[in-house]
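4.2 Preliminary Data

To establish feasibility before requesting continued support, the project team ran the inverse folding procedure on a target of 334 residues. The structure was first converted into the token representation described in Section 3, and no sequence information of any kind was made available to the design step. The complete token record follows.
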């Protein structure tokens, strides 16, 4: 980031990185363009902002009448405890895994490019859901110009690979390079957080926490070894998950994501009294104030304290900066 940007620009950029929906990102981008200093040192960044504004404006406009531009909106609104993208080269087994985990009925077939548009579904874990987005396969013969915007709200990704295919290394290499061209970089660090950037001068690049999912593991004698060789060839360091839809070896994926994301479930007394004891979900290290913001923005402004009911401990009074743990129950006072 140029050293002489204004506080207004920094604020708008932070709002862009935190935004989870296209309209929110578009508002922040326009604020960035208005507030960025106009000089030679920011020309590249100004061009990047204008490109993003154009892409999001077209996406939100939807298809034009007469079919001049077709296709649906490709960014899926985040729901549940987190949004996870399913990535993979053609015929990797993404859609079969998505259907097994979510019951979505995602189309799958023994031919490439069965999936044409993002397909959302929900993976049940304990008493919450993790949103899983099945994306079309990424390959040089099937570029997805909208993939950068589609991955913007994602909290992480599962890179699905069929290690039994002879060309799996080539397919994943193409995928990784195509994402890098969109300034999206796969990392094995979980959780990393949406919006982390490898280049401080580029607010539009991000690390995407990713795990390698070895699909159709029943076809491979040494899944771990084959996966490690693939990652070494591609110079990637990712956690490895073994799955097999045929052998029903996939139910561990949801539990793994829950732990890797650092999901924290917080229950409120007010919801329990209404007979709806569904939890609010935050991440490890987040606080009472973060939960209050999820309930209602007015709760943050008027928050005084909360009564904490934690298993194994006496009830106590906590302030807005108090970090919460999974399973905590609170009673908010405003």
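Position-by-position output of the design step:
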């Amino acid at each position: 980031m140029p050293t002489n940007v204004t506080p207004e620009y920094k604020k708008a950029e932070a709002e862009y990185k935190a935004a989870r929906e296209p309209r929110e990102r578009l508002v922040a981008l326009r604020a960035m363009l208005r507030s960025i200093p106009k000089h030679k040192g920011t020309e590249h960044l100004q061009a990047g902002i204008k490109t993003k504004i154009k892409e999001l404006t077209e996406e939100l406009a939807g298809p034009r009448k007469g079919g001049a531009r077709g296709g649906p909106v490709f960014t899926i609104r985040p729901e549940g405890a987190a949004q996870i993208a399913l990535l993979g080269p053609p015929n990797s087994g993404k859609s079969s895994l998505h259907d097994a985990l979510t019951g979505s009925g995602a189309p799958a077939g023994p031919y490439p490019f069965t999936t044409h548009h993002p397909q959302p579904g929900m993976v049940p874990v304990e008493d919450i859901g993790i949103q899983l987005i099945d994306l079309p396969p990424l390959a040089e013969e099937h570029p997805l110009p909208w993939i950068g915007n589609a991955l913007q709200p994602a909290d992480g990704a599962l890179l699905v690979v069929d290690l039994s295919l002879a060309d799996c290394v080539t397919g994943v290499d193409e995928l990784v390079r195509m994402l890098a061209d969109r300034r999206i970089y796969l990392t094995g660090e979980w959780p990393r957080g949406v919006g982390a950037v490898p280049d401080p001068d580029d607010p539009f690049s991000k690390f995407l926490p990713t795990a390698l999912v070895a699909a159709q593991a029943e076809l491979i004698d040494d899944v771990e070894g084959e996966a490690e060789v693939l990652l070494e060839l591609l110079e990637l360091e990712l956690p490895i998950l073994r799955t097999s839809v045929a052998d029903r070896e996939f139910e561990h994926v949801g539990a793994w994501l829950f732990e890797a994301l650092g999901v924290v479930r917080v229950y409120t007394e007010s919801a329990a009294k209404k007979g709806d004891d569904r939890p609010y979900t935050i991440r490890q290290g987040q606080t009472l104030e973060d939960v209050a913001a999820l309930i209602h923005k007015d709760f943050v402004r008027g928050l005084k304290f909360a009564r904490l009911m934690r298993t194994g401990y006496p009830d106590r009074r906590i302030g807005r900066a108090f970090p919460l743990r999974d399973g905590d129950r609170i009673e908010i006072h405003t």
